[in-house]
Amino acid sequence: MQTAPASVTRLIEELAELPGIGRKTAARLTYFLLRNQSDLAGRLAEALRELREHTRFCSICYNITEGDPCPICADPGRDHTTICVVEEPLDALAIEQAGAYEGVYHV
To answer: Does residue 1 fall inside a structural domain?
Structure first.
């Protein structure tokens, strides 16, 4: 029985660690990246590297940011007396995209 090359197996295993990605989906993604003629794999690798190098958690609200404090905490136009407590940074993002909330967050 032929097995996949070690690099293919490793990528499948790493992708399967992501939430919502099982082993079959990880294998499909891996083989898609192998077949793809564009530089998608390289761009993904670069985006992951930049994510690790440039993002951190805000020291005030613990939201994800590239600067400290985050733009929301640093904004003097925000109502700093109103704090919305959210479980995940994605929750704050969803509220921000609605465009109605003018306070700050605590993640």
So the answer is: no
